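Summary of Year 1 activities. Much of the first year was spent building the evaluation harness for sequence design. The harness presents a backbone, in tokenized form, and records the residue chosen at every position. We chose the following record to illustrate the format because it has been used consistently in internal testing since the harness was completed.
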């Protein structure tokens, strides 16, 4: 059996190595076995550091995690139903522990029946050979590679290969996982596996999968570096219908994805108010460019998008084209108008408008919005308006809004000028 201890010492940091040794010590004291598993093992062969540490225990993973957390002064979060837990060390390293389990699928794409089992069964339930390798952390054979399915051979051949012929019938989310992994690693889905995937897609077995599981995979695909390559490959497999039945890949999408990268790069370098951006959502909105509002609504409902995500996606669908047309117009537009057009939209939607705008005028106005107008406030405060005898309510908000618009347009330049204007507005209603 190949021992990887030397390779591990080169690839893993000293603290990760100490941590893995500690896991081995705890296993010895508790009289059970512990194995490092999944992506970390795969990436070790690719000389890539992977900080997602997944450990399988032949024994009670929660008790095990509690002991590790105690010894490392870490924090544990347990999921009793699944027999799993996550320990976070004081250095913020996260380790996931799971009890070895066997999964059987009573029906295609159904949730598997799970029973706690041996470590070998735990490898059999995995998606691809390159993900089904493990490393022993146990005293006596620490560092020994366990590779029942020749994952190492497939890494050398750069192959993504399913473990068995029913893999994509049992769990069609593996179609999306396989494409994502292939593109990320620069591998190729080997021909037999590709045929199995095609068959599962043709039979539309994915329709029986719990929608949030598919949604999570779609989001992960869009979070990868260079997501267009994944979308393109999904299109080759006719797998875009998993996302939406009417989704088509148009020629322009490639260019739009690049323009989104540029717009987000500009935003990160230049916007004074750096709110974090959900870039995957911008790609998704771009992908849905030709799908109708009702089609987008269907997607949001079916995949149970979070409220905020849904609002952002739908507001773009509703307003995007109209707003862009106005912004691209050659005639003069007051800053307050630009503000009123863009402020109700999310930053994601605005960045997409910037990416798809073919006009320098439109792009310039959006940049101006991010630079100057967004986040601008009137200098007078609510208390100043109250002092003028205005009661809280719509009139109050209207006064604040009018002051802001005049400030944006450069008509009111000092706090005194704002107060003067506020007095005038207040009198009209007193
Ligand atoms: P990364 O985190 O780098 O994307 P990973 O391989 O660690 O890659 P995870 O999603 O964290 O991916 O999953 C961990 C492991 O769990 C995988 O390596 C794989 O062995 C297994 N796994 C995850 N999802 C499935 C699935 N749908 N079917 C079978 N095995 C799966």
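For this record, the design step produced the sequence shown next.
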């Amino acid at each position: 059996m190949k021992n990887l201890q030397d390779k591990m010492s080169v690839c893993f940091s000293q603290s990760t190595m100490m941590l893995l040794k500690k896991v081995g010590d705890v296993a010895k004291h508790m009289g059970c076995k512990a194995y490092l598993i999944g992506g970390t093992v795969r990436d070790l062969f690719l000389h890539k550091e992977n900080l997602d540490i997944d450990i399988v225990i032949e024994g009670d993973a929660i008790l095990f995690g509690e002991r590790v957390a105690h010894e490392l002064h870490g924090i544990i979060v347990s999921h009793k139903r699944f027999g799993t837990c996550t320990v976070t060390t004081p250095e913020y390293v996260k380790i996931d522990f799971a009890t070895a389990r066997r999964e059987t699928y009573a029906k295609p794409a159904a949730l598997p029946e799970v029973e706690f089992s041996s470590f070998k069964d735990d490898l059999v339930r995995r998606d691809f050979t390159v993900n089904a390798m493990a490393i022993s952390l146990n005293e006596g054979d620490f560092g020994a590679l366990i590779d029942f399915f020749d994952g190492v051979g497939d890494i050398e051949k750069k192959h993504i290969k399913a473990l068995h012929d029913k893999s994509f019938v049992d769990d069609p989310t593996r179609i999306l996982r396989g494409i994502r992994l292939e593109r990320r690693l620069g591998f190729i889905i080997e021909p037999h596996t590709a045929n199995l995937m095609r068959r599962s897609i043709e039979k539309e077995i994915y329709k029986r999968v719990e929608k949030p599981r598919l949604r999570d995979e779609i989001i992960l695909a869009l979070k990868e570096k260079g997501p267009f390559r994944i979308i393109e490959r999904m299109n080759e497999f006719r797998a875009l219908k998993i996302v939406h039945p009417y989704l088509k890949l148009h020629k322009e999408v490639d260019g739009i994805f690049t323009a989104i990268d540029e717009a987000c790069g500009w935003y990160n370098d230049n916007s004074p108010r750096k709110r974090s951006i959900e870039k995957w959502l911008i790609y998704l909105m771009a992908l849905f460019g030709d799908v109708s509002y009702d089609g987008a609504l269907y997607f949001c409902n079916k995949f149970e998008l979070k409220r905020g995500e849904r609002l952002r996606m739908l507001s773009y669908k509703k307003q995007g084209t109209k707003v862009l047309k106005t912004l691209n117009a050659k005639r003069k537009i007051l800053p307050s108008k630009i503000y009123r057009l863009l402020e109700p939209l999310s930053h994601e939607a605005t960045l997409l408008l910037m990416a798809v705008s073919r006009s320098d005028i439109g792009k310039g106005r959006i940049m101006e919005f991010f630079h100057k107008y967004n986040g601008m406030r009137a200098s007078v405060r609510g208390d100043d308006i109250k002092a003028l005898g205005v009661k809280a309510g719509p009139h109050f908000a209207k006064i604040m809004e009018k002051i802001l618009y005049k400030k944006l347009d450069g008509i009111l330049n000092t706090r005194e000028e704002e107060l003067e204007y506020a007095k005038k507005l207040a009198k009209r209603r007193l």
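The domain at 1-151 is CATH 3.30.460.10 (Beta Polymerase; domain 2). Quantitative recovery figures across the full test set are reported in Table 2.
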